[in-house]
Amino acid sequence: MSGPGDVPPEILERLRPICRALPETYEEPAWIGIRWRIRARTVAHVYTPDPSRQPFYAQFAVNGEPPTVMTFRAPAGEFLGLTGSGFPFFRAAWGSNVAGVLLGDHTDWTEIAEILTDSYAEMAPKFLVARQRAMGR
To answer: Which of 21, 19, 65 has its CA nearest to residue 46?
Structure first.
């Protein structure tokens, strides 16, 4: 089984400040990779899957290296647009609003910040979402 070290440090360095800016969000190791949570709900999960154990990800390998993936919750009004647009987005195999994005050199980190803010709004208690919006984030 993989561990948190599988996520490239440069990706964690980009994700951490975005997630830390969301009220009461905390980081923890997941069964694979790292996740950020609000209370007991996952806002984002980043990991490097093993394509031999999860064949779906083999199509996204670059030069034989497995991809780095982040899953998140997308608002109903944006879910189909994101997942239907193709690379770097996809629909996760679980949950009605769980989407995934492939992270790497091509990543638009401004877009990722917006996606994480939206995922937080899907998972956090409404009073925290209101506080976060009032802070202008």
So the answer is: 19
Q: Render the chain in DSSP notation, one character per residue.
A: ---GGGS-HHHHHHHHHHHHTSTTEEEEE-SSSEEEEETTEEEEEEE---TTTSGGGGGG-BTTBPPEEEEEE--HHHHHHHHHT-TTEEE-SSSSSEEEEEESTT--HHHHHHHHHHHHHHHS-HHHHHHHHHTT-
* Three-state secondary structure string covering 50-81: CCCCCHHHHHHCECCECCEEEEEECCHHHHHH
What are the residues whose beta carbons fall under 8 Å from the beta carbon of 8, sequence distance 6 or more?
48, 68
Phi, psi of 63 (to 5 degrees): 55, 40
- Phi and psi at 34, nearest 5°, equal -125, 145
Output the pTM of the full model.
0.88
Residues 24-40: pLDDT tens digits?
Answer: 999 999 989 999 999 99
